[in-house]
Amino acid sequence: MAMLASIGKEWPGWVVPLLGAPFVGSFLGVLIARLPTGRPIVVARSACEACGVTLTPRELIPVLSFLLQRGRCRHCGASIARSHLVVELAAIVIVVWTVTVDGDSPWLWVDCLLGWTLLTLAWIDWRWMQLPDVLTLPLVLAGLLVTLRLHPEAAPDHAAAAAAGYAGLRAVGWCYRLIRGRDGIGMGDAKLLAAGGAWLGLSGLLFTILLGAVLGLGMAMLLAAAGRQMRRDSALPFGSCLALAIWLLWLHGPAIARALQD
Q1: Relative to the CA of 234, which of 69, 103, 147, 206 has its CA 20 to 30 Å away?
Q2: Dihedral angle sign, alpha carbons of residues 167, 170, 174, 175
Q3: What is the pLDDT of residues 40-60, one digit of tens each?
């Protein structure tokens, strides 16, 4: 045991989050599939979505089980949704991306948790057009707490940004409804923008809105190129764009700000 402990102390700080990322991704896949529909998350056992057979631990090993089973259920042969594999790989990518930017930072776990949460929100919004409060509201609080710990002098700025992000997008949504007679921006988007303000501050909030709009335009163009009919009233998962904008600005803020200003 002493030898293992000494080996563990010699490991770089990114080893544990990297090894844990596939398991985190597996849990995120459960959140994405169950949270928007109100299905139990912790107490319910994982089962095949086709035949309902409860899966064994050997069938729940992230990435490896999918590859060994060739993407099919061992019991009924039905195809397993590739999204399970993709979200597990995406969780790994977030760790690698963070390490590439920050190196062996003591705040690596904070960056990873932010990235994993934003990944979940973006995926849920893309699939379900929802942004659950159980994820957005803790993200606001976490942003303020991280700011208090890292830059306590900036806490008022970040708190103001959180309030401005929520109030501003709610006002835009209210005006849209007044003019068009229907909802155009959801409350979830406003809460996610508040989270962006809590993490990035007032200056970062402005760039989040700008970058989110650019990403939204790019999404619309890609969907149109893929054959989807795009009209003025077509619904788009703007929360997915905001989540990506927050993540990019958190890791690459100065470089993106210069690019947007140019």
Answers
A1: 206
A2: positive
A3: 787 667 877 778 788 778 888
Residue 124 phi, psi dihedral angles, 5° rounding: -65, -45
Angstrom distance (rounded) from CA 42 to CA 145: 26
State the angle between helix axes of 108-128 and 187-225 in degrees (0 to 180), rounded to the nearest 10: 70
d(CA 139, CA 132): 11
Q: State the amino acid at position 95 in one-letter form.
A: V
Hunting for tokens 């650019």 — which residue is that? 214
Strand partners, 72: 79
**C-alpha closest to that of 94 among 259, 260, 261, 243:** 243
Q: What is the pTM of this model?
A: 0.90
| Alpha helix ranges (H) inside 103-154 | 108-128, 133-150
The domain segmentation of the chain, as residue ranges, is 14-105, 131-262
Please state, in angstroms and rounded to a whole number, the distance separating the CA atoms of residues 181 and 158.
33
Residue 189: how many CA atoms within 13 Å on its side-chain side?
24
For the record, the structure tokens of 237 come out as: 């998962």
Cα 34 to Cα 260: distance, rounded to the nearest angstrom: 37
* Four-point Cα dihedral 187, 192, 196, 197, nearest 10: 30
pLDDT tens by residue, 116-153:
999 999 999 999 999 999 999 999 999 999 999 999 99
Question: What φ, ψ does residue 243 adopt, rounded to 5°?
Answer: -60, -45
Q: Identify residue 25 by its one-letter amino acid code.
A: G
